[in-house]
Structure formats: structure tokens, C-alpha cells
Specification:
Number of domains: 1
Order of helices and strands: EEHHHEEEHEHEEH
Number of strands: 8
Structural class: alpha+beta
Number of helices: 6
Strand content: 25-35%
């Protein structure tokens, strides 16, 4: 599948900072390396469940070469540098994909996980995927909150220190209401920061 340019979007963080969201490409390998180097050991562990001081060449290829259908990754850019990544991975013929996020420490709690989830869900529905799963450390309340606060009906299955979440991503009255509330908030921020630069 060719690069889906229509997935690109300028969005606002919860504080009104304008950032650019777009699908990842192989040309982002260096950006991804720099992004990973900024992450704290805790953030890396919460994402990968292991210490990972650097990304190998093999990992970079896997993380940046996607098919924009069953394997999708979206990045959030500020001043042309990555500050957040969201991705899903599924398999041909399956309606289910596993979703995951990592956000730079300085931008955690700024709504980027929620923005990425909304855009990933829209992309997945376009590609015939109807359900997301996620494996999260049970003590990672912030990430669990990203899914539950989006309005999805999330089931949880605990497996030791991990919890597997599963939810349908089709619109429901609750998800529509959540997005409408966020859109209202973003409109207010945009009005309050009309000169916010597009990065």
C-alpha cells in the first residue's frame, strides 16, 4: 500500500502546542534513533518490558518499514523531531491488531497518546481492522487510562504483572462524545493560541 498522505494532520497538545502527525517512513530511522535516546529507562521499560539502551539496525528496519495496512506506525513531530510514536500490528485476514505507544518523557500527560489512539483507530477501520488489543504492565495506569478515557468498552485480562486489554474500535455514542469534547477543547486552545507555529 502506498504512503497514505491523507493520514497526516496538524494537531494540538493538551497545552495548545501545534504538532504534526504523520505515518512513519524508512527515512525516519535516524529520527527514531534520536527519539529513543531521549527516553528514560522507566519509559523504555513500560513500552518494551525490558531495558533497551539503543535500537539495533534490525529493530529500526522493523519499526520504520511498515505496510500501512496490517502494520502501521504514526509519529508526532515537533520541530521535525519525534516526540511520540503509536503503532498497531495485525495479520492479513484478521480483524484484530495489537496497539502500543511511547511518548517522550517531557510530553507525557499532554494528550498525545489519546491523539495517536484516535488516529490509529481511524486508520485501522479504514484497513478493515475492527478490534485493538494491548498488553500493558498492570501498574502503568496512565496508559490504561488512555484506552478507557477514549470511551471504548475495554475488557481486561490479567496475566501476572501484565494486563491484556481488548476493545472494539468502531464508533459508539461514548467515543463520539469523548472526541466531540476533545474537539471543543482543541478549538478553544486554537482560539487562545492563533499564532502557534505549525512544526
Amino acid at each position: 500500500m502506498k504512503y497514505p498522505a491523507h493520514w497526516e494532520s496538524d494537531v494540538l497538545t493538551a497545552e495548545g502546542v501545534r504538532v504534526h502527525l504523520r505515518p512513519i517512513t524508512p527515512d525516519d530511522a535516524d529520527r527514531l534513533t534520536r527519539f529513543h535516546a531521549t527516553l528514560s529507562p522507566r519509559t523504555v521499560y513500560l513500552r518494551y518490558f525490558a531495558a533497551m539502551t539503543h535500537l539495533s539496525e534490525r529493530a529500526l528496519v522493523r519499526l520504520t518499514e511498515v505496510d500501512y495496512r496490517y502494520r502501521v506506525a504514526l509519529i508526532v513531530l515537533l520541530a521535525d523531531e519525534i516526540i511520540a510514536v503509536g503503532r498497531y500490528e495485525g495479520a492479513a485476514g484478521s480483524p484484530e491488531a495489537e496497539v502500543a505507544f511511547v511518548v517522550a518523557d517531557a510530553y507525557q500527560g499532554h494528550g498525545l497518546g489519546s491523539v495517536l489512539l484516535d488516529h490509529l483507530a481511524a486508520a485501522a477501520l479504514e484497513c478493515g481492522i475492527s478490534q485493538f488489543t494491548a498488553v500493558v504492565l498492570a501498574n502503568n495506569r496512565r496508559m490504561i487510562g488512555v484506552f478507557t478515557d477514549a470511551g471504548y468498552q475495554v475488557s481486561r485480562h490479567y496475566e501476572g504483572a501484565e494486563v491484556r486489554l481488548r476493545f472494539e474500535i468502531a464508533d459508539s455514542p461514548r467515543t463520539i462524545a469523548v472526541r466531540a469534547s476533545r474537539a471543543t477543547h482543541s478549538a478553544r486552545l486554537a482560539a487562545a493560541h492563533p499564532d502557534a507555529p505549525a512544526e
